[in-house]
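Researcher: I'd like a candidate sequence for this fold, 451 residues long. If you have to choose between options at a position, lean toward the conservative one.
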């Protein structure tokens, strides 16, 4: 087979399960009420079906490089896709909320490794001169998932049932397994590698990242540090992560090699990707709430406004993948950050008088800015990493991206709730017969009712 054609087949092979995993991160959100009603669960019980998946996903991501070396990348990739496909089947067949949460944990464990593995395989399969195109393909996957996930989940739930949001993974998973068996091969440096298990690193990483993810997801609902549950999660997370860092720095075969952070470009790339996805997810989560709660848009109309931003990213990314071979990548990143900042500023000016186009274009600008940032930033951050360290580096990079997204959603949701409470309190304290505008409004209402 032609080597040029072969690398694109490898790319499709690793991106299929990656897209499936990223879609599953958001597809359950819109079906939560249907799941809750079907399984006779409360709101808090039902949200654990999301939290458990995200926590398991976050725990496994930083371990992916080590697990790929320990088991062999091809073997571990196929195992992860098989487990994800089977757990999707059992999620669809879940008979109680407890069983659903358990199978979602298995889904998260299986799916967490697929994104960093796909990124590693793409960077190793494509030559350095084509890393921009490889990362464009990867970027399309990670940007397309959050766009299509809510639409797909809503459409399937409305037209079939919530069970099918899991069942649709099965044919994709089977195709991915067959393609992985045929087209994925371990690189020479992974063959015959013997490793010891870093038990302490494994334990402290699992506890630290797991508690952090649950804290970020549940914090606003539990009123943050007013809750003993959140306080203990925070203490355990900080303690476990500090001990984890100490253990890994002295371990001969660490589960996560933190020494890669000595590279200035890699460290700066991780800092930037944290804040980029913090901003993206922090702003995206507010838009559906604003459109459907304040502006009275339907879910379909709301999606019509949100989708073009994602489409803009999908169009821009392949162009940027080509462009970075001729233009300084840093200049493209700076342009992307400026456009993203401008789009975020425009969205901060939204009010009840905003029309369809006034809301649409800032979202498109945000999509263009993200398309300009993600590809060159990922390429600059990872391209200089040795192949032997690539799995470890992509695991750290994807973990930081996920944590940035989680922090963005948590902090933005908290600000929204606190400011809504503040303004509600200010409105209520003026609702007295002695307040002139309130008295006039009450009199007009009474006259209208009598009429």
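Model: Candidate sequence:
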């Amino acid at each position: 087979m032609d080597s040029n054609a072969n690398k694109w087949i490898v790319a499709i092979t690793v991106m299929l399960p990656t897209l499936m995993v990223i879609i599953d991160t958001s597809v359950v959100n819109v079906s939560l009420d249907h799941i809750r009603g079907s399984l006779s669960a409360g709101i808090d019980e039902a949200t654990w079906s999301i939290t458990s998946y995200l926590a398991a996903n976050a725990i496994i991501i930083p371990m992916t490089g080590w697990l790929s070396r320990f088991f062999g990348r091809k073997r571990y990739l196929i195992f992860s896709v098989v487990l994800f496909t089977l757990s999707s089947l059992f999620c669809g067949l879940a008979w109680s909320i407890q069983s659903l949460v358990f199978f979602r944990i298995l889904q998260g464990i299986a799916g967490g490794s697929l994104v960093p593995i796909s990124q590693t395989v793409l960077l190793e399969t494509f030559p350095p001169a084509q890393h921009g195109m490889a990362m464009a393909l990867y970027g399309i996957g990670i940007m397309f998932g959050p766009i299509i996930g809510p639409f797909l989940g809503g459409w399937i739930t409305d037209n079939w049932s919530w069970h099918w949001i899991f069942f649709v993974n099965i044919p994709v998973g089977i195709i991915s397994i067959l393609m992985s068996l045929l087209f994925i091969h371990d690189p020479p440096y992974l063959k015959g590698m013997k490793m010891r298990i870093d038990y302490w690193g494994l334990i402290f990483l699992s506890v630290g990242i797991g508690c952090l993810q649950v804290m970020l997801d549940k914090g606003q609902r539990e009123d943050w540090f007013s809750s003993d549950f959140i306080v203990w999660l925070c203490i355990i997370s900080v303690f476990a992560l500090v001990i984890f860092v100490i253990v890994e720095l002295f371990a001969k075969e660490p589960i996560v090699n933190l020494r890669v952070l000595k590279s200035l470009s890699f460290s700066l790339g991780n800092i930037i990707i944290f804040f980029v996805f913090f901003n993206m997810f922090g702003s995206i989560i507010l838009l559906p709430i604003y459109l459907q709660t304040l502006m009275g848009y339907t879910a379909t109309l709301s999606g019509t406004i949100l989708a073009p931003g994602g489409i803009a990213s999908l169009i821009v990314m392949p162009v940027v993948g080509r462009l970075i071979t001729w233009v300084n990548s840093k200049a493209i990143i700076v342009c992307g950050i400026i456009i993203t900042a401008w789009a975020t500023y425009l969205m901060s000016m939204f009010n009840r008088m905003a029309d369809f186009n006034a809301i649409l274009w800032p979202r498109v600008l945000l999509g263009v800015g993200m398309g300009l940032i993600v590809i060159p930033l990922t390429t600059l951050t990872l391209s200089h990493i040795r192949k032997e360290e690539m799995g470890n580096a992509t695991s750290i990079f994807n973990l930081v991206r996920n944590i940035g997204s989680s922090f963005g959603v948590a902090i933005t949701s908290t600000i929204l709730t606190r400011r809504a409470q503040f303004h509600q309190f200010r409105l209520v304290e003026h609702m007295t017969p002695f307040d002139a505008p309130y008295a006039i409004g009450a009199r007009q209402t009474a006259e209208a009712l009598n009429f």
